[in-house]
Design a protein that fits this description.
This protein is an alpha/beta fold and about 425 residues long. About 40% of the residues lie in helices and about 20% in strands.
């Protein structure tokens, strides 16, 4: 049945496209044209292909309408991709060539039977939505990060770099936005830790969120951003806009730009951080730090922009520090390692480490304080750590984020912000 639909979609689309004026039709006119061509196709099959005609007569009106809608999408929309991303239960789409599509639902990956009519058709769809977002993808620029109109993050890799054909990965985000309360409901974090993080954000501690791919770093950053006071001026900087800061009216959103076909016109994260410093920001939020821009972010944190937030790929909080060192060195190879570590220790106050567990759940694994530099080493002070309990199994992770017995060392920002009551609670608990 799937092959039948694929063949019929191709046939009907070709029938419609033979009329050069079809591109000038409105959406409603095009739908009418498709329905007319569908009826014509049925009549043609009655004389030359009785088997197909019999099948057409057996399918329901609903199925026939679905066929017509799919043809419309294949001409004017995103084809099968439009159908997939309209499913709100899908959180991630992985297209590994035109005939191999995986989706994530409820944290589980599954392959679906749908496929694009051809590799060429998939490539045309990719070109369309990339161009719609003001970017380009071609043989000279085969890798691109962009987003769909709904904010979904898109990564594209074209053949021949991708041996399977064009590869598309789409990460979707909830329309209503993520909150700490929802993360508590998902058991990603405890209420106690959530209260602590709220106070940290309001007191303008500089926070770095680390984790592996798919651990929920951007989602967590969105949740934390809800705690930013509404009277502050915030500037967000991203490769592709994903952050959903909703409660800050004085918000400036900046996005990088790839180079054009001649190799000119690129705007990098580094460029945007440097420019943002001239915009009188109170906080700077960088969606993800990947390279040399780490130094610019650290310098911004060290020059009066407390309360800044960012994320980075790492396997642990300790590893995040090493990664930051490497990132800085990638852009400033001549800097002494001790000077880099001093920058990190002075700029970053808190690291929150996230992980995607073996049962596909996402957990906050550690909240740790950066104390300072001692004998050339950055000293860390773990305040919360995830502990598995007796109910955990090989397939299911059970446990929670537990407060350690370590006292928080740096209280200065709590004091400056007037959060005395909470500070007293912390001391009492310790």
């Amino acid at each position: 049945m799937r092959d039948f639909f694929t063949e019929e979609i191709t046939q009907i689309r070709e029938m419609v496209s033979r009329d050069p004026s079809y591109s000038e039709l409105s959406d409603e006119q095009l739908k009418d044209r498709i329905n007319a061509m569908l009826e014509l196709r049925v009549k043609q099959c009655e004389t030359v292909d009785p088997e197909t005609a019999a099948y057409y007569s057996s399918i329901s009106f609903k199925v026939r309408k679905s066929l017509a809608d799919t043809v419309f999408e294949s001409i004017r929309g995103l084809g099968i991709l439009g159908k997939i991303i309209s499913d709100k239960s899908i959180t991630e789409v992985m297209i590994n060539g035109y005939d191999c599509i995986f989706v994530e639902k409820a944290g589980k990956l599954q392959q679906i039977p749908d496929k694009f009519e051809s590799q060429e058709r998939l490539r045309n769809i990719i070109t369309k939505f990339v161009q719609d977002m003001g970017r380009s993808v071609n043989e000279s620029n085969p890798i691109v990060d962009t987003r769909l109109a709904d904010g979904s993050r898109v990564n594209v890799v074209l053949d021949p770099i991708a041996l399977n054909g064009p590869i598309v990965t789409i990460r979707r985000f909830p329309e209503e936005g993520m909150t700490i309360q929802k993360l508590i409901g998902y058991k990603s974090i405890t209420p106690e830790a959530a209260i602590f993080l709220e106070k940290l954000v309001r007191a303008k501690y500089n926070i770095f969120i680390s984790g592996g791919t798919g651990s929920g770093k951007t989602t967590f950053l969105n949740a934390l951003s809800n705690y930013i006071p509404s009277d502050e001026r915030v500037i967000t900087i991203e490769d592709s806009a994903e952050l959903q800061i909703r409660n800050v009216p004085n918000l400036v959103r900046l996005e990088t730009r790839n180079a054009n076909s001649t190799g000119a016109g690129a705007i990098t994260i580094r460029d945007l951080i440097k420019s943002s410093l001239r915009m009188r920001p109170e906080r700077i939020v960088v969606g993800e730090v990947r390279g040399a821009e780490a130094l610019d972010m650290l310098q911004a944190m060290n020059t009066g922009h407390d309360g800044s937030l960012s994320t980075g790929h790492a396997n642990s909080a300790q590893d995040m520090l090493s990664r930051l060192e490497t990132m800085v060195l990638s852009g400033e190879a001549g800097l002494p390692l001790e000077a880099i570590r001093q920058q990190i220790a002075s700029a970053v106050d808190i690291i929150i480490h996230l992980s995607r567990m073996r049962d596909k759940s996402r957990k906050t694994m550690e909240i740790t304080e950066i104390v300072g530099l001692e004998n050339g080493r950055i000293i860390m002070n773990p305040l919360f750590k995830f502990e598995e309990d007796e109910n955990t199994t090989v397939r299911k992770v059970s446990g929670s984020l537990k407060r350690t017995h370590n006292k928080m060392v740096h209280h200065d920002k709590f004091i400056a912000s007037g959060i005395y009551d909470y500070l007293a609670d912390v001391e009492d608990e310790s």
